[in-house]
């Protein structure tokens, strides 16, 4: 390998194993234009860099996960793989052209085949993918290693990457705990919404349907009360989208939004949508939202499968790239993304206080939480934030995260003009404050049809694709049946596990055989197409914890220690999976029943027509 030269077959040889092990990298390399491959230059010497390797040895300590920044022609990576066979390497090469040059000029097939080269990413677009994999498998502190080239020339870049990773990991952990908190609710909503999704148009069908419109996204903050009358005046001139619970206040004051958006998966939404009028507005429901609201909606509906919803993506055969709306810290974020997809040129934020002005939590008319609950939250709020009047409001960590989320969305949508018209709310970066009366002057010449979105939904609401309906139903039935198989397979693994620790100390050959059998049997369970989407949804923390200890199990060569790890960690995970199977069987049975009911109902409607 160290004497590699240019041959026509090198790229083909390397590409074959890239497609097998790291298909995302193969795709990325294929997408690069055919250019002069001599432009990026290797600086990595052919001889072993002993001084650098000594420095690496001092940095590694007890860490099992190594994040290596840089690939070059792979020489230093081979050294690390050979010197540290019990560690997992996650390698990131920022210069995709340099990587393309390496796989074109050198036979890297042996390197790329190393089992402890666990992950490879190239280019800026794959950095977050690398962060996700690192966050999934890290148990303790990460060992960060950079090739000498980057240590010499790019120390500021390395610091930025480390900071970005820390931010990503913090967000990853928050997301995991959020998923864990709502895991059963969300999984149920994902599955129960399958039938409605099949019979309603998606937000993706409405791309730029209102090109150039002004959209007012209405949230539930206390400032909304002061702008209700202005919203009444503005309704004929701009699309009004209610985010979550704000629909209560709008309906109470006689304002019918053009579209109501629901993202939250909790049953508290039954209180929010308790009145018949709230259920008669056109509805955008996400696949994570509480399923009964979509069930009860009397008007037109559109759906959004979230990028975070792996369950629906599996059953519909979709990829994240085909979906538009990402999860955010607040339903206002969902409404903002919907407005952007509809083609808004301008988004006005109303009731987006992101704090507690005058010690108030909600606008009048928002009544789904008891006053004592919200009063306690306000009284205990530990932070302050600058408001649009130049003074300060009290706030808390939850609202701070929501504020960050809204501001990140604004940055991600640079072609849209954002205006914050929340009269007493927090300053929102990227959305200068303008009061509603000024917005009325600006928008008076514009007009929007009274039932603009309802009419559009009715226009595009075509019959369901019955082949897709049958395909989803078949997958549901097959998965439901396979859950029973998994239960039996887990029981067989538990039977082997009962003796594994004892045999590892008294009959090592037998124990080694048992370890191999258990690993193979677990692989059969975990490699099912539906396993990750379903179980990472219903038990995210348990799966994440096992993923973090997996490198330790895989790289452990001492039989007694390996047996103990398998018994303790895989054994616990299998118990947790077994406990979830009856809950999932009930959910799947109900999802199939709902789909059959929907299909029968639709058949009757079309027969009458």
TrEMBL record:
Transmembrane segments: none annotated. InterPro entries: MptE-like. Residues 189-358 form the 6-hydroxymethylpterin diphosphokinase MptE-like domain. PANTHER family: 6-HYDROXYMETHYLPTERIN DIPHOSPHOKINASE MPTE-LIKE DOMAIN-CONTAINING PROTEIN, MOTILITY ACCESSORY FACTOR MAF. This is 6-hydroxymethylpterin diphosphokinase MptE-like domain-containing protein.
């Amino acid at each position: 390998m160290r004497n590699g030269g240019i041959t026509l077959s090198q790229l083909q040889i390397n590409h074959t194993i890239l497609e097998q092990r790291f298909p995302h990298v193969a795709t990325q390399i294929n997408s690069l234009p055919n250019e002069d491959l001599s432009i990026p230059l290797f600086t990595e010497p052919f001889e072993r860099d002993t001084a650098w390797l000594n420095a690496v040895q001092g940095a590694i300590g007890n860490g099992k996960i190594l994040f290596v920044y840089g690939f070059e022609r792979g020489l230093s990576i081979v050294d690390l793989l050979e010197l540290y066979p019990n560690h997992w390497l996650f390698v990131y090469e920022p210069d995709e052209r340099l990587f393309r040059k390496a796989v074109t000029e050198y036979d890297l097939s042996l390197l790329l085949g190393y089992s402890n080269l666990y992950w490879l990413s190239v280019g800026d677009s794959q950095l977050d993918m690398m962060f996700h994999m690192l966050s999934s498998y890290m148990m303790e502190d990460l060992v960060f290693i950079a090739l000498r080239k980057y240590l010499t020339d790019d120390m500021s870049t390395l610091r930025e990457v480390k900071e970005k990773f820390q931010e990503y990991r913090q967000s990853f952990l928050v997301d995991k705990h959020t998923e864990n908190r709502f895991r059963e609710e969300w999984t149920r909503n994902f599955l129960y919404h399958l039938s409605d999704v099949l019979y309603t148009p998606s937000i993706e069908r409405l791309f730029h349907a209102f090109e150039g419109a002004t959209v007012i996204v209405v949230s539930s903050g206390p400032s909304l009360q002061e702008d209700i009358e202005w919203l009444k005046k503005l309704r004929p001139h701009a699309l009004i989208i209610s985010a979550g619970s704000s629909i209560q206040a709008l309906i109470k004051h006689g304002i019918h939004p053009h579209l109501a958006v629901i993202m939250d998966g909790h049953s508290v939404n039954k209180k929010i949508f308790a009145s018949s009028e709230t259920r008669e507005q056109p509805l955008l429901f996400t696949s994570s939202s509480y399923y009964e609201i979509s069930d009860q909606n009397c008007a037109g509906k559109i759906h959004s499968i979230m990028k975070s919803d792996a369950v629906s993506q599996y059953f519909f055969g979709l990829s994240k790239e085909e979906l538009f709306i990402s999860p955010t810290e607040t339903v206002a974020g969902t409404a903002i993304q919907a407005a952007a997809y509809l083609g808004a040129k301008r988004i006005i934020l109303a009731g987006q206080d992101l704090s507690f002005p005058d010690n108030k939590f909600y606008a009048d008319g928002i009544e789904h939480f008891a006053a004592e609950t919200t009063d306690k939250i306000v009284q205990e709020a530990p932070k302050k934030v600058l408001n649009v009047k130049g003074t300060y409001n009290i706030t808390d960590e939850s609202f701070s995260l929501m504020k960050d989320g809204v501001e990140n969305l604004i940055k991600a949508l640079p072609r849209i003009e954002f205006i914050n018209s929340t009269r007493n709310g927090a300053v929102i970066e990227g959305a200068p404050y303008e009061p509603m009366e000024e917005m009325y002057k600006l928008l008076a010449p514009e007009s929007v049809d009274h039932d603009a979105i309802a009419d559009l939904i009715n226009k595009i609401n075509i019959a369901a694709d019955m082949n897709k309906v049958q395909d989803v139903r078949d997958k549901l039935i097959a998965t439901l049946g396979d859950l029973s198989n998994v239960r039996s397979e887990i029981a067989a693994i538990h039977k082997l596990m009962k003796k594994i620790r004892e045999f590892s100390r008294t009959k090592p050959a037998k124990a080694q055989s048992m370890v191999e059998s258990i690993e193979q049997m677990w692989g059969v369970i975990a490699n099912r197409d539906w396993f990750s989407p379903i179980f990472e949804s219903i038990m995210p923390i348990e799966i994440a914890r096992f993923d973090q200890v997996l490198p330790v199990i895989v790289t452990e060569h001492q039989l007694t220690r390996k047996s103990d790890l398998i018994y303790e960690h895989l054994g616990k995970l299998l118990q947790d999976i077994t406990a979830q199977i009856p809950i999932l069987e009930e959910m799947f049975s109900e999802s199939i029943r709902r789909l059959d009911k929907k299909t029968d109902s639709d058949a009757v409607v079309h027969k009458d027509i």
